[in-house]
Design goal:
It is a single chain. The protein is of the alpha+beta class and 333 residues long. The protein folds into two domains: 155 residues, Helix Hairpins (Orthogonal Bundle); 111 residues, no CATH class. Helix content is 64%, strand content 7%. It contains seven helices and six strands. The chain has a six-stranded antiparallel beta sheet with strand order 1-2-6-3-4-5. A hairpin with a 3-residue loop joins strand 3 and strand 4.
């Protein structure tokens, strides 16, 4: 039998090793291809999902408020039934007391011998008339008492039914509220995902922000325009967004790097709901500051800067608008 040369053995060994590596590579590659991760969602797909969730959330909110109104009506009916029951019970108790008084009087008179009573009376006819009148009054009171008892029992039944319905509705309303809360949380998660897909332009590899020139019809920088668009879409600013102004006041507005998100008009103090909207916008801006190139935020006579990451109070500038009580101000790099 021929013996393989050392070179031949090395070639055979290398060939076997190559074949084994090829098989291992194939085993590694094939599962990787089969288990390939789903592509990242796009803004368009997330916005479509968000629109569907909003529709579901709006329906849940409508059902919730319908349930609340019905619950209030049932609770009102239960209260009315309880008040009527109390009134009927009061009349019933008064009539029952009067009837017991008659019964006691009858008992006391019944203990005496009827003949003695007749003998003692000057006119037996008067006695008979009084007895007949008393019996008539007792019968009349018993009839009234029976009527009041019927009214009382009817109101008691109505109250029990209303209380049971109120309990049922309360459970349903609580369930709707829980589902609405879950839908709103899911909406917030999708909104956050959409925000994460947006990256502010003009960031260098070392993390600093390159200067940008303003442009477009609104005369603001691309970085400021992205922040403005995202906030307007997410919070639906009702009183307008003011950005560029030509007055050289040393701020970022003339540079196209700042916007004011108005919560009221004409310098009026905003409502409680609008004040909260301002807090929500400010919190969102802080959360996304480093990714979107936000430099600082001013709201309600306080300023937050990305370098310090904390709020500090500002000096009084003399009015609601000057002190930013009616709008959050956001400046970008």
């Amino acid at each position: 039998m021929a013996v393989a040369s050392p070179a031949g053995r090395r070639r055979g060994s290398l060939g076997s090793r190559t074949a084994v590596l090829a098989v291992v590579a194939a085993l590694l590659i094939v599962p990787g291809t089969a288990g390939h991760a789903d592509p990242k969602p796009t803004v368009k797909s997330l916005e479509k999902e968000l629109a569907g969730l909003r529709k579901d959330s709006d329906r849940l909110i409508e059902d919730y408020y319908h349930g609340r109104r019905e619950l209030q009506q049932v609770e009102k009916a239960e209260k009315a039934a309880r008040e009527k029951l109390e009134a009927a019970q009061e009349v019933y108790d008064r009539e029952a007391t009067f009837l017991r008084t008659l019964a006691v009087a009858e008992f006391m008179s019944g203990r005496r011998n009827q003949l003695t009573l007749v003998a003692e009376e000057e006119d037996p006819a008067d006695l008979l008339n009084r007895l007949a009148l008393r019996d008539h009054m007792v019968a009349q009171q018993q009839a009234r008492l029976s009527g009041y008892a019927e009214v009382r029992d009817r109101h008691l039944h109505a109250q029990e039914e209303a209380a049971a319905r109120a309990e049922e509705l309360s459970t349903s309303v609580d369930d709707l509220a829980g589902r609405r809360e879950k839908a709103e949380k899911q909406i917030e998660r999708i909104r956050d995902k959409i925000d994460q897909l947006h990256k502010a332009p003009g960031r260098s590899t070392d993390g600093t922000w390159l200067p940008q020139l303003p442009g477009g019809a609104d005369n603001i920088t691309p970085r400021m325009r992205l922040v403005k668009t995202l906030i307007d879409k997410r919070f639906d600013v009702p009183y307008g967004i003011g950005c560029y102004r030509a007055i050289q006041d040393g701020g970022e507005h003339p540079l196209g790097r700042a916007c004011d998100f108005m919560l009221s008009r004409g310098g009026a103090m905003p409502t409680g709901a609008e004040i909260q909207r301002g807090h929500d916008i400010s919190a969102w801006a802080i959360k996304n500051a480093k990714r979107l190139g936000i430099m600082y935020i001013i709201y309600r006579q306080r300023i937050w800067h990305v370098r310090t990451g904390a709020w500090r109070y500002m000096s009084d500038r003399g009015g609601a608008t000057a002190n930013h009580y009616d709008h959050p101000h956001i400046s970008v790099y």
